[in-house]
Write a structure and sequence with these properties.
482 residues; Rossmann fold; 3 domains; Nuclear Transport Factor 2, Chain: A; alpha+beta; 9-stranded mixed beta sheet; 5-stranded antiparallel beta sheet; 14 helices
């Protein structure tokens, strides 16, 4: 194993941390934890597979999977094959069965869905790369609707790739500064996750140089932005709704002080909901206010902060935005064609329920989450739902993301691949199965999950995997043929 680089911890940072360290913790334990490599962890994608089946399926890897207390689908991974196998290259990962996610970052979504709440419309203000968005979608079972926003243009593409791989169908992507939502979509969401941009004091175990530009002055500037983000998000939250505010940093200015600022701004309209009994052992990280302030030595994880805030009353709206969204370029698909598309899709092995509705633009046919349609025309979306097909004179070209989310692996046109053929598929190569498939157009499946759609040309299966998803290092499972 490669030697772990020592984390850079500025003396002023250590002094500031010493001042806020809880009495039951000590600085020696904090420094030692920061200098240890971060434990790898994953979250089972329950949109594709349940936890028990996943654990049985992964047994041949001989990994030790230790449950993460605050996420019933999350596990720390201890393994002996770190030198020979990249976790992101396994066929199970490429098939969307699990997501590589740091354990602490699973906390905010767990906090959002505590008390058995099932919101219908959720805003994820800073969503990329998609770990929390896909976790939210799994908690919602792909029902309702999620607006997943990302300010960085380059990270929107990564966000889409991850929600597509995981089979998420209920999400719309936006590309904005998160401070626009309070004015653009006032009191619109049942639940909001604001995993705020921060100084990153908690991530030194993953990024030893994370603190190289740390300063008290930069913290002040970041906290000012966080106050603007939480204010905007609070305006976008419905009365009675819940917002989780989280960061991967440790100082009070970006955490407790931001939440207390919101309470002071809207007295009587904000209520802190205590998280000290969110999971067994949560009291070790709970603050007097009821927040979770996770120092890395508590759970041997990244540092993190989580607050759960309830909006108890309506507040005065922000000024209406001055921008114009422009004409929405899609229309509802007419009834006759809607029936034709639905029938053709079912013949190809694709189906959906009434929570998704057909829209079209030129030759493109899309499925939009019904829950998000009241937002059309209020903000500009980068993409909504999933692209189902492109229409041609002789039929439809079904899109890869629709196949991953909607295909039935038990359909008559489904073709199951061996691990060796699945590896070839993810490496972008045409397939030569021992037995020629019966159908010219087929669903390609691995482990009873769809991984693409392909055409038969003679005895060959032509590989239609989108080029950006080709993975040269796709790795065979040690399980052999399953």
């Amino acid at each position: 194993m490669a030697k772990h680089a020592s984390a850079f911890l500025p003396p002023a940072f250590l002094a500031a941390t010493r001042d806020i360290m809880p009495a039951h913790l000590d600085m020696d334990g904090f420094i030692q934890a920061c200098q240890r490599p971060l434990r790898a962890s994953l979250r089972v994608n329950t949109l594709k597979i349940d936890v028990d089946e996943f654990l049985s399926l992964m047994a041949p890897y001989h990994w030790q999977l230790d449950p993460i207390p605050w996420c019933k689908d999350g596990f720390w991974i201890n393994r002996d094959d770190e030198e020979t196998l990249r976790l992101g290259n396994t066929l199970e990962h490429l098939s969307g069965l699990y997501y590589l996610q740091e354990a602490s970052s699973m906390l905010p979504v767990t906090a959002l869905f505590t008390q058995a709440e099932r919101p219908s419309r959720v805003l994820d203000v800073a969503a990329a790369p998609g770990s929390k968005t896909t976790q939210i979608a799994a908690m919602m079972r792909n029902q309702g609707g999620i607006v997943a926003n990302e300010y960085s243009a380059s990270r929107v593409k990564v966000l889409h790739a991850n929600i597509s791989r995981c089979g998420v169908s209920n999400t719309a992507l936006t590309h904005f500064d998160g401070r626009v939502f309070g004015a653009a979509l006032p009191e619109c969401f049942d639940a909001i996750l604001l995993d705020a941009p921060c100084s990153g004091e908690g991530v030194v175990r993953k990024d030893p140089d994370a603190m190289s530009n740390w300063s008290q002055e930069s913290i002040g500037s970041i906290a000012a932005t966080q106050r603007e983000l939480i204010d905007s998000a609070f305006h976008a939250l419905k009365p009675g709704g819940v917002m989780v505010y989280s960061t991967c940093t440790l100082n009070r200015q970006e955490n407790q002080d931001v939440c207390q600022w919101l309470l002071a701004q809207y007295p009587g309209a904000v209520e802190i909901e205590r998280l000290n009994d969110l999971f067994t052992g949560a009291e070790l990280a709970s603050t007097p206010e009821g927040f979770l302030h996770v120092f890395p030595q508590i759970y041997d994880s990244e540092g993190f902060f989580v607050a759960r805030l309830r909006k108890t009353a309506s507040i005065a709206p922000l000024p209406a935005p001055g921008y114009k969204v422009g004409k929405f370029p899609f229309e509802r698909l007419p009834g006759k064609e809607r029936d034709a598309v639905t029938q053709a899709a079912q013949t190809a092995g694709l189906s959906w329920d009434e929570t998704l509705q057909l829209w079209w633009r030129d030759k493109e046919i899309w499925l939009f989450p019904k829950e998000l349609q009241p937002l059309l025309g209020k903000v500009r979306f980068s993409r909504i739902g999933i692209k189902l097909a492109e229409r041609f004179p002789k039929g439809y070209r079904w899109q890869h993301e629709a196949v991953i989310a909607l295909a039935d692996p038990a359909h008559i046109r489904a073709t199951a691949l061996t691990p060796e053929l699945a590896q070839e598929w993810f490496m972008g190569r045409d397939l030569y199965p021992e037995q020629t498939p019966e159908h010219d157009e087929m669903l390609v499946c691995y482990l009873q999950r769809p991984i693409g759609m392909a055409k038969r040309i003679g005895s060959r299966i032509k590989n239609n995997l989108p080029r950006e998803l080709v993975r040269d290092g796709a790795a065979l499972s040690p399980a052999g043929d399953r």
